[in-house]
Design brief:
Length: 143
C-alpha cells in the first residue's frame, strides 16, 4: 500500500470520527485535536481534518467559546474564571478576551454578584464572601 492510500484511509476515518463527535456536541479545535491524537492519528491528518472542518464551518472556536461563555454565565461564574476555562480548553487569549468583553458587561457582573449575595452568600462573613467571589472569577472592582 502506498503512502497516499494510507493517508486517504486515515483521513477518511478521522473525518468520519470527527463528524460523529461534532454531531453529538460542539467541540473546540483543541478538544478535537486531543481526541484524534488519542486515536493515534498522524498530526498531518489531524491538521487536514481540522482545516477542512473549519473551512465548512463545522469547527469554529469563536462560536464554541461564545456558547461556552453563555453557559458559564448561567452558572453565575465571573469573567476571570471563564477566561481561564477557555484557555484551558485551548481557546486563544484574543478570542477568549473578545468573547468575554462582548458577552459579559460590567452591569451583568454586578447583577450576578448581587444575586449571589442575596441567596448563596447571605449568611457568610465578609472575608468568606470575598474569597468565594474571587474563586468564582469576579473582578475586585465589581465586588
Amino acid at each position: 500500500m502506498n503512502d497516499t492510500t494510507a493517508f486517504d484511509k486515515e483521513y477518511r476515518a478521522a473525518k468520519q470520527y470527527t463528524w460523529h463527535l461534532i454531531a453529538i456536541k460542539n467541540y473546540s479545535t483543541q478538544q478535537i485535536r486531543k481526541k484524534l491524537m488519542s486515536r493515534e492519528i498522524s498530526s498531518e491528518t489531524i491538521d487536514a481534518v481540522i482545516r477542512d472542518c473549519q473551512k465548512i464551518g463545522y469547527l469554529d472556536d469563536r462560536q464554541w467559546a461564545e456558547s461556552f461563555a453563555r453557559n458559564e454565565i448561567r452558572k453565575n461564574n465571573g469573567p476571570n474564571l471563564i477566561i481561564a476555562k477557555l484557555r484551558n480548553k485551548g481557546i486563544p487569549d484574543d478570542i477568549a478576551s473578545d468573547v468575554i468583553g462582548k458577552s459579559y458587561p460590567p452591569n451583568l457582573q454586578q447583577a450576578i454578584i448581587t444575586k449571589l449575595l442575596k441567596t448563596k452568600y447571605r449568611a457568610a462573613d465578609k472575608p468568606a464572601i470575598l474569597r468565594a467571589l474571587f474563586r468564582r472569577g469576579f473582578n475586585e472592582i465589581n465586588i
